[in-house]
Each structure stands twice: as C-alpha cells, then as structure tokens.
Design a protein that fits this description.
globular; alpha/beta; binds BIS(adenosine)-5'-pentaphosphate
Length: 268
C-alpha cells in the first residue's frame, strides 16, 4: 500500500476511476498516479487473483469465470471493494482500476461513497472533530469530487498490448515484448525472475474480455458521462504521453477540490 508519494508528499485526490478496455493501460497508469500522489491503487483484477491464489471461496467462484474472460457477478464484487476502501490508507483518495465495470457497480459505488465511505468513522464509530468542518460550499471535507478518466485505445493496439504483456511474478513489474521489453529476454530487469503470461491473455480469452467490455462496461462510461464526470483521453500514445494527459486531468480535478481546502487541512 502506498501512503506517500515518491517525493514524500501525499496529496488528496479523492476518487479517481481509470476506465478502459483490457489492455488500455489502467494498471500501468495507476502506478504513475500512486508514485506522484501517494494514494493507493485498487485493482479488482489483482484482488480477485489474490483470492484465487489463496484458494478462498470467492477465488474458487471467480476462477472459472475469469478464465473464460467473463465478468464476475456484481454481488461477489461489492464485499471485497467495500473492505478495501475502508482501509485507513484510502482517506485521501484512491485510484480504482477495473471497478466499476457494470452500470450496477457504478450505482453501488455512488451509494457507497455517499452513504458510507465519506462518512466513514475510521473504524471506531466516532467522527473526529477535525473532520467535521465544512467547505465554503457546505460540502463535507471528505466529499472530494469523483473523476473518471476514460482511456481510449484502438482495438488492434489493445490486441498487441495484451498478447505482448509479460509480468514479473516477484515484483509485479509489467513489460511488453513490443513496447517495453526487458533488457534480457523473458527476465525481470529488477530481480531476474522469469516473466509470466497472465492466464487470461490467451487470444480466445482476450476476445471474450473485449466483448464483455463492449457489452457491459461501455454503459459505465455512459453513466458517468451523463453525470458530467467523464474525461476521455487518447491513450493510444506512448506511456509517458498518456501519463502527462492524466496528470493534467488530475491537477484540474484538484483545483475543484481546493474549494475543500479546509478539508485537506483537517485530514493532514
Ligand atoms: P483486470 O485484471 O482488471 O484486467 P483488465 O481490465 O482486462 O485489464 P488489464 O489488466 O488486462 O489491462 P490494463 O488496462 O490494466 O493494461 P496494462 O496496464 O496491464 O480483470 C481481469 C478479470 O477479472 C476480468 O476479465 C473479470 O473476469 C475480473 N474482474 C476484474 N474486475 C472486475 C469487476 N469490477 N467486476 C467483475 N469482474 C471483474 O497494460 C497492458 C500491456 O500494455 C502491458 O504490457 C503494458 O506494458 C502495455 N502498455 C500499457 N500502456 C501502453 C502504452 N501507452 N503504449 C504501449 N504499451 C502499453
């Protein structure tokens, strides 16, 4: 869990959702946000893979579904997301990678943030006095605006990114044999581990994952667009250029949050 950014300063950013199809670069870019802003990233795919590795009931239910490239049922997702968001490290904000993925999940998240998270009593049922101040606009300091950054990438580029993806089983670093190869073939630059291919990065599964995105997750973009919270960016660019675009969106998002300056002070 990241609590401090690379330069040692954690900064409030509220809820940031990275929305995009498989291979759009959500995981890659969320790491950049973590480094800069010192907030945690919550990848529901990673959480599910951890459950599978531990052989939990949820992991056993999700395993076959994920192997087919389909979405895990909404009801199975809510508990793990709620548990993670209640972590103390989430109070300044967090990046969601892979959630919400259906319109129902988006509605659930709105209700969760509104009714529970932002009034979350940090585990002891009592809201600290310092958290009770309100902004000039009257909003709770914890009610940082939510922003959804949609990563737009061409279909053929997605295929290339997914079939070329490799990751380090030890440190989690991502590579791509086309755009970001390791220095030594198939070995991690950092720890020398043999790189692995994700189970669901086989071509037949990839096409179902992309189809599931079209069927179910595009509706999430419509949901947030209707609320005026969606910012679409061209993610069909080199990684560093995509990062620059995302940071520009986040800085403008933080400008809105500055109205809640008193809240930021209260959370320090
Ligand atoms: P999840 O793990 O979330 O996978 P995904 O959404 O399919 O996304 P990926 O992790 O494949 O891609 P990414 O966008 O993170 O791209 P990355 O940065 O790795 O979900 C897996 C499964 O879990 C789902 O299919 C579902 O079954 C289940 N699940 C998860 N959440 C769920 C939910 N909320 N509800 C129900 N089910 C859920 O990049 C990909 C590659 O491209 C890398 O090699 C990278 O190096 C390269 N790359 C990245 N950016 C660039 C760039 N700009 N230029 C060139 N190459 C790039």
């Amino acid at each position: 869990m990241a609590n401090e950014s690379a330069n040692g300063t954690a900064r409030n950013i509220g809820t940031v959702i990275l929305l995009g199809p498989p291979g759009a670069g959500k995981g890659t870019q969320s790491r950049q946000i973590v480094d800069r802003y010192g907030v945690p990233t919550i990848s529901t795919g990673d959480l599910l893979r951890e459950h599978i590795a531990r052989g939990t009931e949820l992991g056993n239910s999700a395993k076959g579904i994920m192997a087919r490239g389909e979405l895990v049922p909404d009801e199975l997702m809510y508990g793990i997301v709620a548990d993670r968001l209640r972590g103390a490290d989430c109070k300044r904000g967090f990046v969601l990678d892979g959630f919400p993925r259906t319109a129902a999940q988006a509605g659930w998240l709105d209700a969760f943030l509104e009714n529970e998270f932002f009034e979350n009593k940090a585990g002891n049922g009592t809201q600290p006095e310092s958290d009770k101040s309100t902004s000039p606009a009257g909003a709770s300091p914890r009610k940082w605006p939510l922003v959804v950054i949609q990563l737009l990438v061409d279909y053929n580029q997605l295929l290339q990114r997914l079939t070329g993806r490799r990751s380090c089983p030890t440190c989690g670093l991502l590579y791509n044999i086309h755009s970001q190869p390791p220095r030594v073939d198939e070995l991690c630059d950092v720890d020398g581990s043999k790189l692995v291919i994700r189970d669901d990065d086989r071509e037949e599964v990839i096409s179902e994952r992309l189809a599931a995105y079209d069927r179910q997750t595009r509706l999430v973009a419509d949901y947030y667009k209707a609320q005026g919270r969606l910012v679409a960016i061209n993610a069909d660019r080199p990684m560093a250029e995509v990062t620059v675009q995302i940071f520009a969106v986040l800085e403008s998002h933080r400008e809105q949050g500055r109205d809640l300056k008193s809240g930021e002070e209260a959370l320090k």
